[in-house]
C-alpha cells in the first residue's frame, strides 16, 4: 500500500509537508514543476527542518512564491517543555494552529538511547476509562506534517542542548544530527484511527533521504482496530506493533475499553497471529495493571496463554494515577506476583515503570494540558 496520490487539481489545498517524497514528486510533476525540485524541498523540510520558504535559498524565487500558494507549513508552538526531576524525560506541550494542544514525550533510555513518544490525534475518541486523554473535549486528527513536526521539534531542542550524534545521512549536520533513536506512536490518540496520516508520517520518518529511521526503530500502538493492523503491515512490514490489551476477559475489557464491543479479544489475537511472518517485527502487549480489576492470578494465567499464542512480549505497567482517575495502582507485591505467574507459565514479560510521572508525561497521563488548563474548544 502506497501513499495516497495527492489531488493536484487545487494546488492551494496541497499540504506539501504531509506528502512522502514519492507523492511530493508526483505533485510537482502534475503541477508542471520539475520533480528534482521536490527532492530539494523534501530535504529542506525533513533534513534541515526549515519552515520558511524564503530560507530555502537554492529554490528559485518564482518557485518559492508558487509554494506559498499551498497550505501553510506545519507550525507547532512549544508552549512548555518541562523536564522530569526523576528521570530526565521532557514533555513537549505543543500548540496547534487552531489553538488545540498536543503532547509528546522525549525519554532518555538505558544505554544512551533516546525514545520519543508522539501523538497522532488531539484527544482520542476510543474512550478508554483509565486514560486521561479520553477526557479531552476536543478531538481531531493530526496531519502527517503535524505528526512529523513533533519529531522535528525534539531534534531542534536536542540540538540546542548539544545532544548530537554521528552517522547522520549524507553527512548532514543541524537538527537531524540530534534526532532520537526510537519513535513510538503511543501519545495522544489512536494511531490506526488516523490511518492515512500515520502511514504517510512513517513513510517520511523512514525515508533514507529524510529522517532515516529504520522501521525497526518505530512502534505503533493500537487499542485493537483489527482490520487496520494488516493494512499497516502491508504499508510498513517491519514496524513493531503494540496492543493496548489491559484485560484478559471481554467482560472486563468492554468496561475499560469500549472498542472491545466491536473487536473482542479473540478477534484481535487472530489478527495478530495471522500476520505475515517477519523475523524483524516485534509484537508487544501493553498491560496497565489496575488494582483489583485486572491483576489477579487468573488474569496472569490467561495473559501468559495469549502472549504465547501470538509470540508477544508483555509490558506490564502499574497504573499511572492522574487527577480524578477512578482506578488505583496495585501494590508492589501484587505487581511482582502477577509478573512472576506470567513468567512461570512461559510468558515473556517485563515490568515497566513509565517515565516522566512527576510532570504528567507517563503512559495514560497525557491530557493536553497547557499552563495547568485542559484545552477546550
Please describe the topology of this protein:
Layout: H1 21-30, H2 35-46, H3 61-67, E1 77-80, E2 90-95, E3 101-108, E4 114-117, E5 121-122, E6 140-141, H4 144-160, E7 182-185, H5 195-206, E8 218-222, H6 229-235, E9 240-244, H7 250-256, H8 265-273, E10 283-289, H9 297-310, E11 313-318, H10 332-344, E12 348-351, E13 369-370, E14 373-374
Parallel strand pairs: 4-7, 7-8, 8-9, 9-10, 10-11, 11-12
Antiparallel strand pairs: 1-2, 2-3, 3-4, 5-6, 13-14
Helix pairs in contact: 1-2, 4-5, 9-10
Tags for this entry?
single chain, 377 residues, alpha/beta, DNA polymerase, domain 1, TIM Barrel, 2 domains, ten-stranded mixed sheet, two-stranded antiparallel ribbon, 10 helices, 14 strands
Describe the structure.
This protein starts with 20 loop residues before the first helix and ends with a strand. The strands form 3 sheets. The protein has a 10-stranded mixed β-sheet, with helices on one face. The chain is elongated and about 70 Å long. Helix 1 crosses helix 2, helix 4 (144-160) packs across helix 5 (195-206) and helix 9 packs across helix 10 (332-344). It has helices at 21-30, 35-46, 61-67, 144-160, 195-206, 229-235, 250-256, 265-273, 297-310, 332-344, and strands at 77-80, 90-95, 101-108, 114-117, 121-122, 140-141, 182-185, 218-222, 240-244, 283-289, 313-318, 348-351, 369-370, 373-374. It is 29% helix and 16% strand. It is of the alpha/beta class.
Amino acid at each position: 500500500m502506497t501513499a495516497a496520490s495527492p489531488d493536484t487539481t487545487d494546488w492551494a489545498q496541497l499540504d506539501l509537508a504531509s506528502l512522502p517524497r514519492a507523492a511530493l514528486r508526483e505533485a510537482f510533476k502534475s503541477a508542471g514543476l520539475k520533480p528534482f525540485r521536490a527532492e530539494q524541498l523534501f530535504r529542506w523540510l525533513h533534513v534541515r527542518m526549515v519552515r520558511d520558504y524564503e530560507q530555502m535559498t537554492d529554490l528559485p524565487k518564482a518557485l518559492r512564491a508558487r509554494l506559498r500558494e499551498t497550505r501553510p507549513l506545519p507550525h507547532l508552538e512549544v508552549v512548555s517543555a518541562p523536564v522530569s526531576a526523576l528521570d530526565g524525560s521532557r514533555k513537549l506541550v505543543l500548540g496547534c494552529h487552531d489553538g488545540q494542544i498536543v503532547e509528546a514525550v522525549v525519554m532518555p533510555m538505558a544505554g544512551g538511547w533516546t525514545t520519543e513518544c508522539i501523538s497522532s490525534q488531539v484527544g482520542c475518541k476510543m474512550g478508554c476509562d483509565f486514560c486521561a486523554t479520553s477526557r479531552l473535549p476536543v478531538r481531531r486528527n493530526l496531519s502527517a506534517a503535524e505528526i512529523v513536526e513533533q519529531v522535528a521539534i525534539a531534534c531542534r531542542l536536542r540540538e540546542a542542548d548539544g545532544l548530537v550524534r554521528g552517522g547522520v545521512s549524507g553527512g548532514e549536520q543541524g537538527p537531524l544530527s540530534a534526532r532520537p533513536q526510537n519513535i513510538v506512536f503511543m501519545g495522544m490518540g489512536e494511531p490506526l484511527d488516523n490511518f492515512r496520516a500515520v502511514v504517510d508520517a512513517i513513510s517520511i520518518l523512514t525515508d533514507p533521504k529524510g529522517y532515516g529511521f529504520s522501521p525497526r526503530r518505530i512502534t505503533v500502538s493500537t487499542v485493537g482496530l483489527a482490520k487496520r493492523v494488516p493494512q499497516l503491515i502491508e504499508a510498513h512490514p517491519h514496524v513493531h506493533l503494540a496492543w493496548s490489551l489491559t484485560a484478559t476477559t471481554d467482560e472486563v475489557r468492554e468496561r475499560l475499553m469500549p472498542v472491545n464491543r466491536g473487536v473482542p479479544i479473540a478477534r484481535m489475537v487472530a489478527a495478530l497471529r495471522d500476520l505475515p511472518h517477519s523475523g524483524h517485527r516485534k509484537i508487544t502487549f501493553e498491560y496497565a495493571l489496575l488494582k483489583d480489576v485486572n491483576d489477579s492470578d487468573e488474569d496472569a494465567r490467561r495473559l501468559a496463554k495469549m502472549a504465547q499464542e501470538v509470540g508477544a512480549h508483555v509490558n506490564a505497567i502499574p497504573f499511572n494515577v492522574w487527577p480524578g482517575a477512578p482506578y488505583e495502582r496495585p501494590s508492589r507485591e501484587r505487581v511482582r506476583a502477577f509478573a512472576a505467574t506470567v513468567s512461570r507459565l512461559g510468558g515473556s514479560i517485563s515490568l515497566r515503570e513509565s517515565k516522566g510521572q512527576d510532570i504528567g508525561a507517563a503512559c495514560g497521563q497525557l491530557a493536553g494540558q497547557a499552563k495547568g488548563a485542559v484545552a477546550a474548544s
